[in-house]
Design goal:
By secondary structure, the protein is mainly alpha-helical. The protein is built from 10 helices and 2 strands. The longest helix has 26 residues.
Amino acid sequence: MTKERPLPVSSLAKIPRQRRSVDMVHDLIDAAILVLQREGTTAFTTNRVAEVAGVSPGSLYQYFANRDMLIAAVVERGILETETLMRMSAESVEGSDSRTLLGTVIVAILNDLRPYARLLQEVLLMTPYAANTGVIPMLETRVADLIREWLTGHPDRYVPRHGSVSLVNGTRVAVHLVLRHLTDPRHKAGDEAFVASVVEMLSAGFDKRG
């Protein structure tokens, strides 16, 4: 049975109801990814994406108002898929200490996103738009929620420091650092050292009881 892909509803002009329409939306997002990876942002137009997807521009505009919303959909679907990966990784080390949990989740994200480094580079060229529409804050929120849920499930072992402020701020920085680690060729740190530093930073957001 084919795994159902998450639908980036926040980026759509209307929500597809029929299976054929849902598939077309995913085909358009897949085509957007191909254009960004192979041709870059300069070639990225709605007409080009429609051509690669094999649909008419009119069909594209039923679901995406413009090319910016296509970018938003690419990022949003990626975030939803990353959230599923994070939760599966966290469940795989259930019962472990906080550093093991954080390290496992970060390594899983790096391994999952590394094949899409070129795509991330192109998308980040449009970061101001992505930030304004909330897709980057969405990723920050999903990571923070995962950590917060884990802490809530272990109230006898850990307590948030300074309420949620340290956790939220640490998550924002961590997301930025992960994206830079994957996309900036000047970022020379190896994965092991990088993961250790991010775990240390996130761990500063809560204290161990006793």
